[in-house]
Amino acid sequence: MSVPPHGHGPQPGYGQNGPSPFQQHYGPGGMPPQQSPKRSFPTKTVVLIAVAVVVVAAGVVIGFLKFGNSTSNTHASDCMHIEKSGSTTTTKTVDCADPGANVKVAVVRSSRSGTCPRGDYYRYTTGGKNHRVLCLVPNVRQGDCLSGLQTATTTYQKVACTDPQKNAEIVKLVPGAKDRSACEGSGSTAARWYSDPEEAICIKS
Length: 205
Description:
This protein has two helices and ten strands, in the order H-H-E-E-E-E-E-E-E-E-E-E. By secondary structure, it is α+β, with helices and mostly antiparallel strands.
């Protein structure tokens, strides 16, 4: 009887049970490890997510259009609507032909400490990150009637001349006027004058 060489056990013969190829690759039991099933979203869920994204994007655009119209981008010759309700004053840039456009921007200063030219300008300082000074004049034409016109406020509004709230009427505009004397003989009771651009507004209270 022969003895196997030292360090070697008996070798399995033909038909003997050796390690299964499945065991070699996958470990005991011969079965591949269980994998977590891949999660899949129903088509309906994917569609709802896509719709939600579109709705949010549309809301951003609408919000920008609604709230992005501020005086921070207002330039000379633009018109604004200024209205006061209680202690709150609201402003927005509008077309000069808009009935609510009660002031026009004559001059813009890029610094908060900027001053307006000589004349009866309304000085308005914008809010936001970059403060600017807007020098405003009434956006009026001859024959316009106003309610709430006062020396120190821009919150007057255009009204029908038959409106009992009317307290002023524009009787004459004098482009190129050098001073308020341009309104003499116009039937006005007050005058406002501006140096840039030069103009006198003749007002009957």
